Protein 1
Amino acid sequence: MKMLILSNGDYGEPAWYRNQASGFSRIICADGAAKMACKIGITPDLVVGDMDSIPADDCERLTQEGSQFIVYPPEKDLTDTQIAYELAREEGASSVTVWGGVGSRLDHTLSTICNAFSLVECGIDVCFTSPVVSIHLVKGARVLRGEVGDTVSLIVLTDEACGVTLKGFRYPLVDATIEGRWQCCVSNVMTVNKALIEVASGNVAVFHYHRLPD
């Protein structure tokens, strides 16, 4: 089951998301992201969280359109996005696309990305997408499709990543070990339209920029 999670981070132009909104079996919205769902013009199946960030008119609109609301207390151990992750796993997601997972709150961004590896450990494919960057969570092999000249960075989120191989990049690697405490794979460049990334062990977030931010 292909699922979409809307988190309450930065989005950019809503029109981009309207063009990407089809093909999902289930849409889960984390609390304040409901505002963006209304701007984009999509109706989530579920809205979860403590509901402290949703304007009343958006709440009423989504209720009328059939969204189900699951309300949690403000004082809870999990973030609203973590709750969405758990529901996606419980409902049998095979892949999860996250919108709004990156934002101005660096603590929330790091938490959202790191926590998503709990889904990857369960065999669920996870990708964060936006008009500017896609973030793929890689364990194993991944074919990265893009354009020659695209900027790609690998960030290791465990102590180390072993058996890292990069093919189709300006700076290739073969069976390398990358230390999590000393990142060395930032700002590589694709030299082909389909590049290969292999990770034998460890958690790696692959940042694929469709265009570099201003």
Protein 2
Amino acid sequence: MSPMASTPPNLKRIVCLPGDCIGPEVMAVSRRVLEEIAPELELELHSFGASAIRATGDPLPAETLEACRSADAVLKAPIGDPEFDAADVRPEQGIFRLRAELDVYANLRPARQGAVDLLIARELVGGLYFGVRGVREDGTVFDTCEYHPSQVERIARRAFELARSRRGRLTSVDKANVLETSRLWRRVIREVAADYPDVEVEDMLVDNAAMQLASAPEQFDVIVTENMFGDILSDLAAAMTGGLGLAPSASLGDSRPGIFEPVHGSAPDIAGRGIANPAGMLRSTALMLEHGLERPAEASAVEDAVDVALREAPTPDIGGRATTAEFADRVLAALVP
């Protein structure tokens, strides 16, 4: 019997988006784990990404979007397929739309290994990736970075709360010596800081932050930053703590369901070979249990079981020989001793 079996029922509906290439393979492992530790959860599969383009012409079909809106959480596997890399309609367009539709403005990227235990809170639905873009008559191409104070304030408050629940240190990363949006960012961070006197706050320019992450990542607790800086720094933090293949993420709003997904790609070169590493998918499942469903005991159990499997049944990407199924079996064995 699962050690989590004594947990009172907490009926929730989870929309599972299996994604592309290795996506269905790693999603299947997460579903096995959830069915073991939380059998009362209702798990629904819906089309998303390249598979949805083939079926409907849209990476985010209306039926899938409606299911996500009404769910308690969205668990998403990686998307992407070389078939659509140069197409007008691409799988990645679906995730940008889904994030905007659910207004999941806070992207949490934990990085943990040895003495390093940090959390990046990245603003996810504003900035350069969502600004006005285009081509002028003279051939100039432009992308616009814009932020409203309210967008900065809400990610700042989320980050301060997270820092308060951890070790009480917050590093705000910007480029205030150059960018107007960063000067706004720094001003709002300082205004919000007045409500959190128990959190130590530091401003850091993004280039220095990258250098510090690469050379002394153990100094950080919570990092808060804008969309593009967060995209880059979170991948760097993942590389410092085991690689993108092991890294999870949670994208949260204030009331709508969160999106929980690994940060690695769909790995078409190994799809169907049964050797995909499901660690990032499982760690994202743990984040869903913790932040999306308020089940920290189950989340901790999954995290610990993944750590066991990484040591005892590593897949080829991290120097081992275990298959995806063997890794999953070791996770389940650790969950159900």
